[in-house]
Design goal:
It contains nine helices and nine strands. By secondary structure, the chain is of the alpha+beta class. It has a single domain, classed as Glutaredoxin, CATH 3.40.30.10. It has a seven-stranded mixed sheet with strand order 2-1-5-4-3-8-9. Strand 4, helix 6 and strand 5 form a beta-alpha-beta unit. The longest helix is centred in the first third of the chain and has 17 residues. The chain is globular and about 50 Å long.
């Protein structure tokens, strides 16, 4: 039986409880609680809203437009934090395993998106990801969707220091909240789910349910 994303994150948390100090555990839990408390779902695009054109940059450094993504049918965009995020290294392989095969069968494109540029190709090779992974320059799309946040702790950094802005290539503490956006071929929102607590993310079943009424791509099998 395939383990759910919830169960996979529970295993990660259990390992942390064995190896992290109480202070580390509480600091991590407190930030996730705060983000969940402050999250405003009413500020997100509504079902049926049309998403304006945007341009991402794929893992090969090429522009990837909304028009290209929707060229052959609906699409699923999975937003993640960054390539080194432990929870993202659980979520993306989960989607590869449990979501991608059915999307491929139906002719629906899957694209994973973060603010990180250039795209962390190590993430792709580590898990053998076969869907597109793309960067969102300047947080343009994520900000439009209202899914970015700033951590409470933003210490002063020096150029070249090892901090999240250097990791992302953004020189900012701003990070994407994990989210799933499902669009029909006309760029209208079929489904959106945002996870301010990054250890609670969208399972594959509701994503596929959102696509149930969409016609499969001609010739998809």
């Amino acid at each position: 039986m395939t383990a759910s994303l919830k169960d996979r994150f529970a295993s990660l948390q259990a390992e942390r409880e064995r190896t992290w100090s109480p202070e580390q555990l509480e600091r991590n839990a407190a930030q996730r609680r705060l983000l969940a408390e402050r999250h405003d779902a009413t500020a997100l695009p509504a079902i049926g809203n049309k998403i304006a054109p945007f341009t991402l940059v794929d893992q090969d450094g090429r522009d990837l437009t909304l028009e290209q993504i929707l060229n052959d049918g609906p699409a699923v965009l999975v937003f993640f934090r960054f390539g080194g995020c432990p929870a993202c290294n659980i979520a993306l392989p989960y989607y590869q395993e449990t979501l991608l095969p059915e999307l491929t069968r139906r002719g629906v494109r899957l694209v994973a998106v973060s603010a990180q540029l250039p795209v962390d190709r190590g993430l792709i090779s580590r898990h053998g990801l076969t869907f597109t992974v793309a960067g969102d320059p300047g947080y343009a799309l994520a900000r439009k969707l209202g899914i970015t946040f700033f951590p409470e702790d933003q210490p002063t950094v020096t150029p070249g220091a090892d901090w999240i802005g250097a990791t992302l290539g953004t020189d900012s503490y701003e990070i994407d909240k994990p989210a799933v956006l499902v669009l029909d071929q006309d760029a209208r929102v079929l489904f959106i789910d945002v996870s301010p607590d990054w250890l609670v993310r969208t399972e594959s079943a509701p994503i596929l349910a959102a696509l149930a009424d969409q016609p499969a791509l001609n010739g998809a099998h």
